[in-house]
Amino acid sequence: MPSATIGQASQSAGSVELAQTSAANGHDEAVYSTFSTASKRCISFAASSAAMFSGLSSFVYYPAITPLAESLHTSVGLINLTITSYLVVSGFVPSIVGDLADRTGRRPLYILTFAIYFAANIGLALQDSYPALLVLRMMQSAGSSSLLAHVLHHGIGG
């Protein structure tokens, strides 16, 4: 639907962008945002980038299965268990994090899950044992799947 900017007004908390939009019922409504256009683009870019981590972390791992098994002196079946654990954790952690986000706020949990994901990736780069690989892959999944679920469920702006 077309939108036209009416103007901008100043407010004590910051600038407010006022845009006129056509609603489905034919009435015009004013839409307010405390974010500038540049800020909205930056937020959209950051959230979209975070949303790609889950898929990237999952699929980049597949070509390294055999070399990982050889370097950790374990079987390919045990390495495949790390993939299964990644998927299981990515299935249930977002529901826990979503409930916590409703109680404590989304921003702190978004930062926390990104920190968990980042720390797990550092740990994965430095680990040299199978148990560490298994635990860190589950941590990586907990962080990345929560980021994706947060972006998909709550949207970028809401």
How does the overall form come out from the CA principal axes?
elongated
Biggest sheet record:
3 strands, antiparallel
SS content category? alpha+beta
What distance separates the N and C termini?
A: 20 Å
Q: What Rg is obtained from the alpha carbons, in whole angstroms?
A: 21 Å
How do the strands and helices of this protein lay out in sequence?
Layout: E1 3-11, E2 14-22, E3 28-33, H1 37-51, H2 53-59, H3 65-71, H4 76-104, H5 106-126, H6 130-154
Antiparallel strand pairs: 1-2, 2-3
Helix pairs in contact: 1-6, 2-6, 3-4, 4-5, 4-6, 5-6
Polypeptide structure, described:
A hairpin with a 5-residue loop joins strand 2 and strand 3. The protein has six helices and three strands. The chain has a three-stranded antiparallel sheet, with no helix packed on it. It is 66% helix and 15% strand. It is an alpha+beta fold and 158 residues long. Helix 2 packs antiparallel against helix 6. It is elongated.
Please sum up the structure shown:
The chain is an alpha+beta fold. It is 66% helix and 15% strand. It has a 3-stranded antiparallel β-sheet with strand order 1-2-3, with no helix packed on it.
